[in-house]
Amino acid sequence: MTSPPGAADPASPPDGPVLVLFDCDGTLVDSQHMIVGAMRDAHAAHGVPLPDRERLLSVVGLSLPEAFAVLSQGDLSYPVEAMVDAYKNAFNRLRNGEPPEPMFDGARAVLDALRQREDIVLGIVTGKSRRGVDRVLAAHAMEGWFATIQTADDAPSKPHPAMVFQAMGEIGARPDATVVVGDTTYDVSMALQAGASALGVSWGYHEASALERAGADQVVHRFEEVPAAIADVLARRRVVIG
Fold this sequence. Notes:
Blueprint: E1 18-22, H1 32-45, H2 53-58, H3 64-72, H4 80-97, H5 107-115, E2 120-125, H6 130-139, E3 148-150, H7 162-171, E4 178-182, H8 185-193, E5 197-201, H9 208-214, E6 218-220, H10 226-236
């Protein structure tokens, strides 16, 4: 049977690298304690009622202006810009007084193994600022592990696919050889809009069922399952690694 146009030969590695792009908050590190604390302080600073914890965590992954726009629920009097500034100030204050955001179980070991493979290039796509990402990587001694880092400073907020397009352009990776690993429906939508595969993780801030409904190619429940799942979703695109 003839392969569809642009499909990789299933017996061969892809032309160019396989690119695996990880979200940060909720996927690599568990920052919910500081996120909720900063949200609490920002709302208190402006006398805005604090949504419940589930609602606050539902917007993790969006860039801050978009997150607060969602929380505003269309209220034109909601001080989005002021809330963004208050959140940044609170988050930085909490970060200076707290231990660094912990990595999820198994994350560092899996990333260390993946980065040493010749057939995979790692990257980050996140709603954090570049400064925030740099702090996380420094805290966990992972500087230089990711060949491309796309942040809220570089592109429109998720689920816009710009971060994935930019990462693929920097690395020279095809969409069918790119996998986005993330914990939110925003990650899934971003990946699919860019033509990449979406690997959902269930330990973050959106339910596994929501990731599946959003169209995730697969959902994993432990970080140790990520490498095999990457190979599996790529095989569905007729891209073989390993």
